[in-house]
Design a protein that fits this description.
There is one protein chain. This protein is of the alpha/beta class and 224 residues long. The chain folds into two domains: 184 residues, Rossmann fold (3-Layer(aba) Sandwich); 39 residues, no CATH class. Helix content is 45%, strand content 15%. The strands form two sheets. The chain has a four-stranded parallel sheet with strand order 2-1-3-4, sandwiched between helices. A two-stranded antiparallel ribbon has the order 5-6. Helix 8 packs across helix 9. It starts with a helix and ends in a 7-residue tail after the last helix. It is found in: Endomembrane system. Its EC number is 2.7.1.91. InterPro entries: ATP-NAD_kinase_N (IPR017438), Diacylglycerol_kinase_cat_dom (IPR001206), Lipid_Phosphate_FormReg (IPR050187), NAD/diacylglycerol_kinase_sf (IPR016064). One of its GO terms (molecular function) is sphingosine kinase activity.
């Protein structure tokens, strides 16, 4: 036990030193900057809030990372928040949800007039609580880390470690607006399955398989 405690205190000290470099703002008083957490309570099977409280909050508290939690109240809440709020108090935005919530965060940021000034000083992270979690899996693959064993814990540790990597964004120009994609762009069957399976999201990731089979039986055709 003494040896384990010694290792624990040593690793915690090293982590705290790293976090001080990450979460301290470059201001005269060196005040600590905070993490903005946006949580979608309806992500995945609807247990994002419970997952955050049980598995993510202890990690943030143990690492002494200050954060502000906002729970989304409706669709496009994150777009409105990220496009209109002053973000100077935060050095990182963490989405607790699925790829849809992260999509709103990215599009909200890029709707800002000052996006070119904000983005270089704002890291983005994700805690996978959605149905597909494609981005979280990509991040785990990028760092050669296991995903399926403990994806939430692994993502939380990645967030507090401060590691980051560049991310490509695709701009899609529609007739009356622009959209930004960070993962993939779907059309036709793929979009039908993704959007229409929302009505059975309580089934988690299995909703995609079930609705794919349903839509194949009731196949639509599109002109393109």
């Amino acid at each position: 036990m003494r040896e384990a405690d010694r290792w624990y205190r040593s690793l915690r000290w090293q982590l705290h030193r790293t976090l001080e470099e990450i979460f301290v703002a470059p201001t005269a008083d060196e005040r600590r900057r905070r993490v903005l957490v946006l949580l979608n309570p309806k992500s995945g099977s609807g247990d994002a809030r419970e997952v955050f409280n049980m598995h993510v909050t202890p990690v943030l508290n143990e690492a002494e990372v200050p954060y502000d939690l906002y729970v989304t109240k409706h669709s496009n809440f994150a777009i409105e928040f990220m496009s209109t709020r002053c973000l100077d108090a935060w050095c990182c935005v963490v989405a607790v949800g699925g790829d849809g919530l992260f999509h709103e965060i990215v599009n909200g940021l890029l709707q800002r007039q000052d996006w070119a000034h904000v983005l270089p000083h704002l890291a983005l992270g994700i805690i996978p609580c959605g149905s597909g979690n494609g981005l979280a899996r990509s991040i785990a693959h990028c760092y050669n880390e296991p995903y399926f064993s403990k994806p939430v814990l692994g993502a939380a540790l990645t967030v507090i470690s401060g590691r980051s990597s560049p991310m490509d964004v695709v701009r899609v120009q529609l007739q009356n607006r622009s959209l930004y994609s960070f993962l993939s762009i779907g059309w036709g069957l793929i979009s039908d399955v993704d959007i229409e399976s929302e009505r059975i999201r309580l089934l988690g990731y299995q909703r995609f398989t079930i609705w794919t089979l349903y839509r194949l039986v009731n196949l639509r055709t599109y002109n393109g």
